Amino acid sequence: MGWWPFGKKSDKQTSNSNDPILKDTRTWLSELRDACELNFDKPEEARRQIRYMQVEWKEALDTGVLPASTREGLESRAFRLLTCSDKEWSSWLDNLDFWKAGWKPENHEPNEP
């Protein structure tokens, strides 16, 4: 009888528990959007949270958890949200294209071959 269910466990792990759970682009965007929408009537508080998130994005980039392209998109949105007036604030929040993955600023021209 070679099979016994209560025997020693092998040293081999079936899953790598050290792997971080990586967020995708939509998750990062959703966190930014949620912070802004929860404070839609308090733009300064939302801007404070955005600045804090920028530090988190930098750390995530440095550790390899956040891709550079995703960080670039997040920073581009953060720049607009941090520099806009309170009147423009709600316009950015209501702009559905602004919150889609792959959004580019209007004045951004793609590189032509």
Question: What would you note in describing this structure?
Answer:
The chain has a domain at 25-99. The protein has 4 helices and no strands. Helix 2 (43-63) runs antiparallel to helix 3 (68-83). Helix content is 53%, strand content 0%. By secondary structure, it is mostly helical. The termini are far apart.
The end-to-end span amounts to: 69 Å
Approximately how much helix is present in the residues?
40-55%
Strands, total number: 0
Strand percentage lies at under 5%
Determine the number of helices (DSSP H or I, runs of at least 4 residues): 4
CA-based gyration radius? 21 Å
What is the overall shape? elongated
SSE run: HHHH
**Mean of pLDDT:** 83
Largest sheet, described in full? Answer: none
**Structural class estimated from helices and strands:** mainly alpha
Low-confidence stretches: 109-113
